[in-house]
Request: fold
Amino acid sequence: MNSGMRWRIMSLQAILVLVLGFVAGFCFWANSFTTSYVHDQLVAQHISFPAASEIKAGGALDPAEFPASIRQYAGTPLDSGDKAKEYANNFIGKHLESVGKDPVTGKVILDANGQVLTYSTMGDYITAQKAAGASTATITTLNGERDTMFKGEMLRGTLLNAWGWSQLGLYAGYAAFGLVVATAVVAAAFFFELFLMLYGVRKESEGVVTRTSTA
Reply:
């Protein structure tokens, strides 16, 4: 390899080291910023999991209803993306399954597909009940259930959004470490090429000196 080609390769390696290093630094920043932001915003909500004393039959974390994945956080504040997902799916989600009860039978209302009603489908159900001549008390009760659904679904959606951002931060951290490794590899290749170039210049210099001395 001639010196001109080696210089071009080394120039590209040097540029690549700078680019990879910059992107790695940005990913580290993104990881730190996202993690801190999600943590601070969740802490500001002052939400906590039910106490460990509620892990009992009939308690707020009844083992018969709630999985071990949420029971492990009993009594702790909701301050991370993983906790937000757990609270959203296995606490709020669980309670939403029992919202939307028929005022007469006390049973949870299901749609035509056998699914629990949501805020949107509850609206359709109330409209149908009005058309069927349901009493004012019944409609008022159903609207109260729908209001609870709205609040629960909104909070659940917000917490899942926080979890999604925490995952982006997590992946940014993984990417940062990968880029650091890539930067180190390219930097090692650059210094290897530099060594070969300096070694070649030295050998050429020694050859010139030897020829001069012989002459």
Observations:
- The mean pLDDT is 87.
- The chain has one domain: 3-214.
